[in-house]
Amino acid sequence: MKKILSFDIDQTLNVAKTPIPDEIADLLISCLRADFAICPISGQKFDQFLIQIVNRLVERGATPVDLTNLHLFVAQGTQYYKYETPGKKLGPVELSVTKPTDKYDEKNWKQVYSYPLTDDQVKKIATALETAAKELGFWEEDKLQKGDTIIENRLSQVTFSALGQNAGTKEKYAWDPDCKKREKIVKRAKELAPEFDYEIGGTTSINAITPGMNKVFGMTHLLEELGAKKEDVLYFGDMTQPGGNDYPVKEMGIDTITVRSHEDTAFALRGILGVTNNL
Ligand SMILES: [Mg+2]
User: Fold this and answer.
1) In this structure, are residues 76 and 157 in contact, taking their beta carbons and an 8 Å threshold?
2) In this predicted model, what pLDDT tens digit does every residue of 170-193 receive, in sequence order?
3) Residue 88 scores a pLDDT above 90
4) CA distance 239 to 242
């Protein structure tokens, strides 16, 4: 019996870069209440986890008690946040005194760990990605919205988003549907700065990390933090093919469900909750 349900975000729980739909929010709340630990792992930053997942769960009725089963593995799991509720010492065991009537407060998210890149590493990666994209004619600076950037330092990784963070979903889907442009950029960037790993994710993104700082790093820490074994976890992702950013999780031996979209994920979650309810 799985105790932990772990998810990629973009195209697994949502339409890339958008908040999760009602159906997914409601299913995740049901999973939290069925006492599954829910662990999203994605290359996104913490504020995107709040916008895309947490705020939606709260809007759909998740309580602080529910949120204590939610564990956020930000920037591919190189940062971990959990929702802390007021507790007080009562003898040897710390008991939570959270009541269902307590109000959700964003300030109660606590960073448990963080492993940032150094300034020098960030500079090297940014230069390699920009040079590669420019050489190949894929540097689309003219298409950026005001104030947006192609390369972003997400502390534990550097992310290339071909059309910027704020481009329209349609444009993003159309830019590189077969991943061919990004495969070329990755190949060239790897020649320019071989000491880093480059992974294709989302619709227009490449995540650059130091070797080993991928979802395996996140998943390994997840197991440690939650005191769990590999077989306790079921992982959902849309990029489980070799080279995809969900592949390392599958390769390390975690049971994985490959989905094409959040509709597939919803279908699988309904099955899991159905089975659980019948036990
Ligand atoms: Mg994805």
Assistant:
1) yes
2) 999 999 999 999 999 999 999 999
3) no
4) 8
Is the whole model's pTM more than 0.85, yes or no?
A: no
Tokens representing 222 are 């997840």
Which of 194-203, 233-242, 262-271 is predicted with the least confidence, judged by mean pLDDT?
Answer: 194-203
Residues 241 and 103 in one domain: yes
| Domain-terminating residue out of 152, 184, 209 | 209
Full residue range of the structural domain in which residue 247 is found: 4-114+213-278
Q: Residue 161 Cα, ligand 1 centroid: separation in angstroms? A: 14
Domain CATH number, residue 104: 3.40.50.1000
Outline where 97-175 has alpha helix (H).
119-136, 169-175
Compute the CA torsion angle 81, 82, 87, 92 (nearest 10 deg): -90
Regarding whether 189 and 70 lie in a shared domain, the answer is no
Structural domain ending residue among the three candidates 150, 185, 209:
209
Distance in Å, CA 65 to ligand 1 centroid: 28
- Report residues near ion ligand 1: CB below 5 Å: 8, 10-11, 238
Q: Which two tokens stand for residue 151?
A: 């390369």
